[in-house]
Amino acid sequence: MAFGLSRLRGFRAAVLAFIGLAIMAGPAAAGQPEPWQMNMQDPASPVMTQIYDLHNYITIIMIGIVLLVMGLLGYCIFRFNAKKNPTPSKTSHNTLLEIAWTAIPVLILVAIAVPSFRLLYFMDRTQEAEMTLKVIGHQWYWSFEYPDHGNVALDSFMKYPEDLEEGEPRLLAVDTPVVLPEDTNIRIITTASDVIHSFAIPALGLKTDAIPGRLNETWVRVEEPGMYYGQCSELCGVNHGFMPAALKIVPKDEFEAWMSETQAAQGIDPAQTPATELASR
Ligand SMILES: [Cu+2]
Fold first, then answer.
1. What percent of the chain stands above pLDDT 90?
2. How far is the CA of 176 from the centre of ligand 1 (A)?
3. Do 151 and 257 fall into the same domain?
């Protein structure tokens, strides 16, 4: 008995310690995972903000259902066990109850489905894209193209641990991050050159398959400049775990400066677009 009690106390202490750690851990940093993170990364785009809200909303509904079912189960176990209730009721139908336990779950599902579909369509594509980024998955790195800026192109490889600079996360930092302007609706087109990859940046709510011979579309708008990290999220071969994506979000003027520099370095005429290039051919 004494052994049982002390084990119970140990379990209770462990639960309290876990809850304490969860509270101390607080909200996670934006842009990358952190040790003892207890929830999703801080949302940094309108899509991720809404995903986060929907997640919290469904979690609350779920907690309500769990408490109700546990309560009913506990009540039945204590109130209607063989000792307390030796002659059980023979009731087998209750029309009102049966209608209620059919209709209420349907209403709960509708209450989840409506905001869920609204969010799916919101995520699907942006109404007014201000620029386009093309993302191409390769075994095992990402490359990026800016079709609105004369097809500037970048290859982005994971940095090896020995090349990391101060503060750069292991297995997430890349040699050439893709640079994008803040406060801009960016259309993202994904595809792949070999097998299926998936372009995913958790803090921005991005996760879109990159499929050879096919273009998928998604979009992003980032309000806060900074580094945002993600990883390929489709098992794509032996180095699948080593093809991170890093997005560097900078103020608009800084983006323009970076873009002219990169265009000059790649010998690209800034006026050239896919349309003008096609016309010149
Ligand atoms: Cu991949």
1. 70
2. 17
3. yes
Give the Å distance between the CA of 210 and the centre of ligand 1: 8
Looking at this protein, which amino acid is placed at residue 184? T
The Å distance, Cα 31 to ligand 1 centre, comes to 20
206 alpha carbon – ligand 1 mean position (Å): 15
CA–CA dist 59, 227 (Å, integer)? 29
Report the separation in Å between the CA atom of 277 and the middle of ligand 1, taken as the mean of its atom positions. Answer: 31
Look at residue 274 in the predicted model and tell me its pLDDT. 63
Residue 108: pLDDT over 60: yes
* Band of pLDDT at residue 14, cut at 50, 70 and 90: low
Ligand 1 center to 103 CA (angstroms)? 44
Query: Of 198, 60, 220, which Cα lies nearest the Cα of 129?
Result: 220
- Residues 178, 247: contact at Cβ < 8 Å? yes
d(CA 203, CA 149): 26
CA distance 170 to 163: 10
Domain around 218: 131-280
* Ligand 1 centroid to residue 88 C-alpha, Å: 60
**Pairwise CA distance, residues 270 & 109, whole Å:** 51
Distance 192 CA to ligand 1 centre (A): 9
Distance 260 CA to ligand 1 centre (A): 30
Q: What is the CATH number of the domain that holds 67?
A: 1.10.287.90
Last residue of a domain, which of 97, 124, 151? Answer: 124
